[in-house]
Amino acid sequence: MRRADRLVELIGRLKAKPLVRAQELADQLEVSVRTAYRDIAAMQAQGLPIEGQAGVGFMLRGPVDLPAITFGHDELDALSLGLAYVEQVGDLDLAAAARAVRGKIDLAWAGAAGPVPSARPIRSSQRPERRSPRFASALRAAVRSRRTIGFAYVDADGRQSRRSIRPLALIAFSNGWLVAGWCDLRSDFRAFRLDRMGDLSVGQAFDEEPGRDLEAYLHRQQDAGTPSVEKDGELLQSARA
Fold first, then answer.
1. CA 232 to CA 191: how far, in whole Å?
2. Whole-number Å distance between alpha carbons of 229 and 193
3. How far apart are CA 124 and CA 105, in angstroms?
């Protein structure tokens, strides 16, 4: 992430919560704590109203003006709906990120025509049993860093198994979450419902191989004609990744 983008991201994180510790900012921005302190000091030197101290936390004590962003009404409604949905899917880190994004857009949109995204009359809801499990953040990190995962799995018939896959994509849809990947047990692509997974462990990094990567998986989906995935004998309708 470029430093300029990181500073904008940091402002959004400070806007999203009344008090944020440097360690939390460092974890969210994927930088060292020292870098987080240095970025905060740089913004304070530029006159931004950031107050706090090491070991306690930091907060915004006044308005922060960002460069204007131009969006149409439909675009703002799309952003509002997307962010509202992300806050409901159950991944706590993604929910925090959605609030930070909304805060940054609100800051940039302040004073423009029409309500800011957070004030738009668009909401989202997700049934508790369809929300992502607690290990969703670790699973997203494994997909991002291309690391294998192992997990216990229970299929639709109650059969239990232990799986190891190369996770390629996460799929969120109205009925829940799927992780799609190359399954070592089946030597083929498979998609697994997160609400049937447990005891997740993250393994070693893997290299992308032609025929076993996300591109091949998406081609398989397109060739099938319908966005369905075979999961241990059960066809589960889902959206494409």
1. 9
2. 11
3. 19
* Structure tokens that stand for 235 in this block: 């066809």
Of the two residues 202 and 233, the one the predictor is more confident about is: 202
| Beta bridge mates, 154 | 160
What tens digit of pLDDT does each residue of 145-194 get? 999 999 999 988 899 999 999 999 888 777 777 899 999 999 999 989 88
Tokens representing residue 230 in the block: 């075979």
Q: Which domain holds residue 154?
A: 136-237
Per-residue pLDDT band at 225 (split at 50, 70, 90) = low
The answer to whether the pTM exceeds 0.90 is no
Residue with tokens 């992300």: 86
Number of domains in the chain: 3
215 is written with which tokens?
A: 């591109």
Asked whether residue 89 falls in the same domain as residue 25, the answer is no
